[in-house]
TrEMBL record:
Domain Halobacterial output: 30-100
Organism whose genome encodes this protein: Halapricum hydrolyticum
Protein name (record): Halobacterial output domain-containing protein
Domain of life: Archaea
Length: 116
């Protein structure tokens, strides 16, 4: 675990300024995808996670976790894309979440050369 985002451990955080996208890698063995999404979205929006609309108003968190959980002996990638809090969110089965703001100004700049 390299960083803590809104109380959730993540392995890496990258900000891609050209697309206003934040990409995180998280440990699927320790963190459910739904928790990673809410933690990162709260960070991006500079808000407390409890202030956000509940994730279940957009997607079933249990179903999301089940779809993108660690699997053995499977081929290919599964990913789920949805919009929540005016952000496009994609969760990949290999432990990555990308979040792109509907409005660039709402994405926190993670600075420097992250994602470059």
């Amino acid at each position: 675990m390299d960083a803590v985002v809104s109380g959730v451990g993540v392995e890496s955080v990258e900000y891609h300024q050209d697309s206003a996208t934040v990409r995180i890698q998280f440990d699927q063995e320790k963190t459910p995808a739904s928790m990673a999404v809410i933690a990162m979205l709260a960070e991006v929006m500079d808000a407390d996670p409890v202030e956000l609309d509940p994730l279940h108003s957009t997607v079933d968190p249990d179903a999301l976790d089940a779809l993108v959980r660690v699997r053995t002996g499977t081929d290919g990638d599964i990913h789920v894309t949805f919009t929540h809090e005016d952000h496009a969110i994609t969760v990949f089965s290999y432990g990555v979440v990308t979040i792109t703001a509907g409005h660039e100004s709402s994405v926190k700049n993670y600075g420097g050369n992250a994602g470059r």
